[in-house]
Amino acid sequence: MKRIFLFHVILFASQFIVSQNNWQYYTRIADSLQQQNDYNAALKLRLQAVEIAQRTEQDTLPFLKLLSALEKSEVELVAKQSDSVFEVLKNQTESLKEFNPTPERIYRIYNKLYEYSNSKKNITDSDYFITQSLKYQYKRNAIDSLLLLETLQKSGVTYKQIGKLNEAVNAYLKAIKLCEDLKIKKPSVLGLNYMSLSELYRYRFLDNPKLFLKYLKKAQTVYENANAVNDLIRVYLGLSDFMSSTGKFQQSINYLKKAFKVYKNDVEANKKIGLDKRDVEKEMKLHNYFIEKYRIVGNEQQMLFHLNEMLKEAKPQKLLNDNIKDLICLSHLYLVEYYEADYKEKALFYLNQGKKYFPSKDLYFIREEYDLHFANVFMANNELTKAKAIIKDLNLKKELPLFIAKSALEKRIILNVKSEKYEDAYTDINYLIRQYYRGNNDIDIRTVSYKNFVPGTVLSDTQRFLNLAQAFETTAKTVITEKLYWLALKQFQANLNEEILNERVNALYSDICYYFFSKASQGLLAESKLNKFLIFTESIESKHLLNTFINNRKTSKTTALDSLIKKEQRLRTNITHLKKQYLENKSDSINQLIFEYNIKLEKINNQLAQNTNKIAGLVNTNAVLENIKQHYVIKFKQVRGALFRLEVNKEKGIKVAKIKNYKNLKDRVVEMVTLLKNPSSKTNSIVNYSNKLFDELFTNTNILKTNGEVYIIPDDILYYLPFELLAYNGNYLLNNLNISYASAFSFINSTNVYIEANQVKDIALFAPSYSSFKPSNLQLAVRGEPYYLEGAINEVKSISKLFNSSDIYINEKATKTSFTNLPNKYSILHLSMHSFINDQDAELSSLVFNDGNEDYELYISELYGLNLNANMAVLSACNTGVGKLKTGQGIVSMNTAFTAAGVPAVLSSLWSAPDMATQQIMTAFYRHLKNGETKSIALKNAKLDYLNSTDDPNLKHPYYWAGFILTGDTSAIILNSTDNWWLYGVLFFVVITILFLIIKKRPKIS
């Protein structure tokens, strides 16, 4: 009986298991078919699974029914492309989450939803679905790498569209990592990811030139290896645009030539095998690019050559499509822009010739662009009636691109100013600002203040405000003129994110500065406004230094500060990009993103404000004027060929003056520096120049009345001038003043920034020997001495004896590797070696270590990447200039690079002084430093010691001693010297003697 019962139990259980396996079996097969996109077959199996479960397990039914419904919706969505089916599938997918489905089951549905929402250009839904798909794909037990790669690429596109630029970057970086893991080198995959990543760093998006170039060059390598002609041309065009934006126009043209060569070679190669791959439109586009670049460099001959090449293809009998016609019209416009300022008849000729090629269908509003230029020419010729007619028609047109609509309105305002219709001009200015600059609904140009104006999100719109201001500048409406300049200033300041002050941007900055400096020099700018303007200039120039630091820094050791600054910059550019999107599409989701990113930005700015690093301090310049007013500072600023002087002191505040006839003054500076570098020149001649330059640079200042430190912030050619050598009544300033230098206001009074500024640890001294090193043709040697600097080696040995603890790196031990791997224990870095200052390209300035290794030059970009954390760097030996005296940028870049690396003070030489004099001055400098003198006083006294100890009048020539200058922090350094050990010895002896006498005098205890 028991056996029969047991048999029935086993039979029942086996039937239950079989039934369970049946519905699960059908579900597994359906899942497999779904992954193969066979939805109809999968749906049949799911229905069978539901039927089995109905007979066996009621709890499983809702889940299986939902799966069947999902399958049905997926089939219908593909077949019908219906919004209602899409909504049903979306809701079903959210319901499915309640059953905790496997990642394999749900991510594909999200992919399907993404494809549909993307096809409907529903960017918000697309963003959500692609994010969910990625989330579940990463949760899978066995990840389909190729599918994940495809999804990452799609997510990058979507995130870029919605404005989540940093998320897009992360998606492409993950895609590139997957390509590397899977060894995928296809240009259509790996190259595309690099191109997409570089695009995110364009000025329109995250605006990081360094990373844009980095990833574009990686794409270049991929496409060159694969000989992907069209993609390679695209890369070369991108590189050409980049070089042009950074002012490297010849390199820009060279990349264009590479693109043209790749195209021509491909055409010729295919011609040999009987294929015609000539693409007239592509050729036209390349010629158009050439004309654009040659316009920038002013090469009229090449512009005309490429235009004629285009016109050869544009013969009447040839059928031209509208794209080609548009390119021909645009090329004519470049000629018009070239001739417009000085050759108006030629400009008019090319306008009339170009309009013959107008496309039948206006693709890019080329006709309206021509109208704007016709109006420009007529306005310049004072044919105001013709110009007004054109502008009137333009302003009546609807749906114009923003830049044309704003330009047409701008020209109408200028025409009203020229016609003295000022009320109409004010009305149009108000309309321009209210219509195109969000947040200015109630603005009135007659009453607007700097504080109340909300700037737009386009940097180039600064030029628009400048054009209006310059139009009013010719009238008596000085109040309106000033207000427009303030608007231009705020527009510029709000949109300079990670951009370096290249030629285009610097032109805007210079126009703003020239107006305010001129007004201040005439006493027409109130103190509060002058302070506001100077805070602006300091923030812009400090931001320029910061961006140079970030963009040129080469380091594998990314610090927390690096990350913080980069986050701050990325957020700013991301917010700007989102604001631009919001203007076009006032979406709540974009507005919410702007709000959230602003909260993040505020947190980062608070962190930066608390950071004690010098470069981080440059971000926050609001308090800088109050700090420098405690000192006596003279800053020079060259703007548009004029030189302005800012005198800052506690008693008088800030005074601005315009230096007369800067062109002639520059010539005198060059002549004087030439005499200084020549030991055979006559000292009397130098003194004469010194007196003249003192009068020109310091007349009507209080420099002779100050008793303390004098800080000089030079500019342009003045970087080469040792100011302590200027003379008043034949007496050098060196005798009465302590002069030091700085690159910007922010670099003055840095003792509160460097917490460990007075805690000396050690000194490291470098003096390399050179066996084969010789300067290149660009590195023009000033001295004719051997490159084995025997005096430098004697110098460091002599200096080391002054310190208790010093490390000497001489001859072959003075390598670049030794320096870059220095521990952070050194307070002073003394470098007796060749250094090359390059004014043509400051980033090529370098320090030259021992040449036993292949890599022995340390360039500025590498110096930015070090974390030296020392109190002072001393560059004492051969300093070779490159090329003619030009801007001094090489000098300031070297000093700034050391500051960026954590060194607040740099003692350097403006020219190469002889070894013996250098040794004497350096040794004396350290002796005075040991006595507790500030760095500037120690250097001054070292020079005076040299002069007082030298009997030979020839050796008193400034060539031997005047070239050494101190830049940055001037505070004293407490040194641990060997001279103190005898004190410890005496003290020890005294203590022992006293103890001995005490013990001896004690009564003996029996």
From TrEMBL:
Transmembrane intervals: 981-999
What SMART domains does the record tag this protein with?
TPR
- Give UniProt keywords alphabetically: Coiled coil, Membrane, TPR repeat, Transmembrane, Transmembrane helix
Each TPR repeat, start to end = 149-182
| Residue span, CHAT domain | 691-969
Q: Which residues form a coiled coil?
A: 561-621
Q: Does this UniProt record's set of keywords contain DNA damage?
A: no
Is Membrane among this UniProt entry's keywords? yes
PANTHER family registered for this protein in UniProt = RAPSYN-RELATED, TETRATRICOPEPTIDE REPEAT PROTEIN 28
Query: What protein is this chain from?
Result: CHAT domain-containing protein
Which organism is the protein's source? Seonamhaeicola algicola
